[in-house]
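This part of the workshop introduces the protein records we will be handling. A record pairs a protein's sequence with a compact description of its fold. Backbone structure tokens are a discrete shorthand for how the chain folds in space. The question running through the whole workshop is how a given chain folds. The record below serves as our worked example for the rest of this section.
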Amino acid sequence: MNGTPEEQRRIANRLKRARGQLTAVIEAVESGADCRTVVTRLATVSSALDKAGFAIISAAMRECLADEATASAADGDDPARPDVDELERLFLSLA
């Protein structure tokens, strides 16, 4: 993933929080916690992952759109760089 170091740090922090929340879900299941606790914690993990995914795609979209102006003048495209249509599909896959 590209992006500014600040974007990368924020996304990594979101994912680390999600990892901690997932650990809490696993512990709740293993300890036989009530359904409400498990589902609430699971919803928190899901939301954290969604937000991280949106942040990743948002950073990629900004990068691609900024690069598009300069890339149109250059010969050939970078096959590793997703185009706007692919980013849109990725974004919608999170919905």
